Structure formats: structure tokens, C-alpha cells
Amino acid sequence: MNSELNGLGIDGTSVLLKAKSTPAAFHVVVPEHSRKRVILLSREDEKRIGEAVIADMKAQGAFYSDATQEKRVRAIAQRVNAVLPEPFPLNIYLEKDEQVNASCLLDGSVFVTSGLLKTISDDQQLAAVLAHEYGHAAARHGSENVTKMLMQSAGSMYLAEALAASSGGVGQAGTLLKAGYGLGSKYGVLLPYSRTMEHEADRLGALYMARAGYDPNAMVKVFELFQKMSPDSGIFSEFLSTHPMNQKRIDNVKLVIATEIR
Length: 262
Description:
Layout: H1 2-6, H2 12-21, E1 27-29, E2 36-38, H3 43-59, H4 67-82, E3 92-95, E4 102-104, E5 110-113, H5 114-119, H6 123-139, H7 141-167, H8 172-180, H9 195-211, H10 217-228, H11 237-242, H12 247-260
Parallel strand pairs: 3-5
Antiparallel strand pairs: 1-2, 4-5
Helix pairs in contact: 4-6, 6-9, 6-10, 7-8, 9-12, 10-12
């Protein structure tokens, strides 16, 4: 992970040392929540990571053009983005993938799959998905994941170096880190979110939907749709792997709507 970040001009080791010397400076509260966590990345770091992910996807030919769908997604994203505590630049990408998925990267860039757009024709439900993803971005959950990986990789690096030294080997640390924290993680962006993160994004998404003029009950409907779909069907496997769905999440959204949205 550290070597990958170094390639983007982010010195993970230096950031860790700064955090060790002034830990309070890296404690960040989740918007409209009380939970504090450590975030080591700056906004500029988040921008670099987002740009790297998009560049990788472009190089792989992952995106496609559809003026009608792009206009649809952009209009919805613009309304939701406008009510965020810190609105992001409006960068919208359509991904060629029949799996149902969407993501908001660390820099606020949004991509949605062709599978999602085929499955969800209702704009209110699409707004629910985008609002949830913007909830993750506003809460900086991706950066929180990357921070955890940096801390874990630092510990793994020291262990790997000790193992290499004791065995007389060379270069083992880099090999072990690559195996544990490789590019497949998309710099932590596509790692599964914790249950706490999902509940935070659900709540923020419902609040953002309502503030943008959408019906937050659409989030309940789209979550119920996802819950009914089997992960074995293929099209939902990626979304469900990074956003595990259960009845408690649906009940929590209903509670937010009933008690916090007028």
C-alpha cells in the first residue's frame, strides 16, 4: 500500500510519523455523527487517489458513452451533491458492467454501471443509490479504509523485515505487502465497508435525499429490491460484497425517515 501511494506522490511513512507526533490533528468526526476516527489523507491525497482509479479504469476501457443516461445521472447527482456539507466537483462516469454497482470515489467522482442503470429506471431510487454513495464520500469512509490499510501495512512491513532478516532473505517485505495490499483493492476504495460505515452512509443518504427534494422512502424500496436479489445471480454480487444488505439496515432507514425527516 505504501509503495502504491508513493507512486501517487503520497508519502505514507511521512504521514504516519506526523500522525504519531500530533495525533489529535488527524481525528476527524463523521458529518452529523459523533464518531471520531483517524484520517491520514489530505483532500489533495484523496484527489490523487481518485484520479489514479479513474485513469486505471480508462486504460482498461471500462467506461462508455450514453448521452441520455449521463444526463440523467448528472442531473440527479448534481441535486444531491449540492446539499452536501462540502460539495464535490461533479465528475460522472458510466461503466460498462452488467453487475449492478455504483461508487463515489474519495474525490467525489461518481461511477455507475450499465447494469445498475438497466435495473433501476426510477429516478427516485437512483437518487437513493447516489445519495448513499455520496454519504460514504462525505463521511470519508474510503480514506478511513486507506488509513487502516496504511497502519496495518506499516505493522506488516516491520514483521516482514524481521522475518527476512532472520532468514537471510532479501526483498521479502515488499513481496508480502504486495500480496496483502495489492492494486486489486483500488487503493482501498472498493474494500467492503464496515457495518458502522454502512449505517452512517444510509442515514446521511436519506437526509441528503430529503434535502435535495427526493422521497427518502425510495431508499427503503431500492434496498428491499437488493435484499430480494440473490448474490448467486451474478449481477448483484459486487454491490452486495461491498455493501452487505440486511433487514436491520432497512429498518434503520425507516427509523431515520420517521424520526429525523419532516
